Amino acid sequence: VQLQASGGGLVQAGGSLRLSCAASGSIFRINNMGWYRQAPGKQRDVVATITRTGNTNYADSVKGRFTISRDNAKNTVYLQMNSLKPEDTAVYYCNADVRSFSGSGYTPLDAWGQGTLVTVSS
Prior knowledge:
about 0% helix
């Protein structure tokens, strides 16, 4: 199973970006999906998560500015980021709780994307 993230880039403060992350491979089902970020010299923190049925949670720092969504048919999660601030600058990683086909059953897998860099200039 692979997660491919895209959509990062350089944007001015107040601007918007949309991140995408598509999962591929031997997938039976994906439960929770989420976005995390890691700024230089800091730990990786959760940004937003979404359940298979669409329930969402956000870090306080992004509430009202970021929106997480998913397309279960495409095994894809999105992060719409509006009103970006310089402190949002980080590498953004997608994560998925995957049930992967394995023999006659399935195997749980905590999958991570490769990260996409978001840089917000002041």
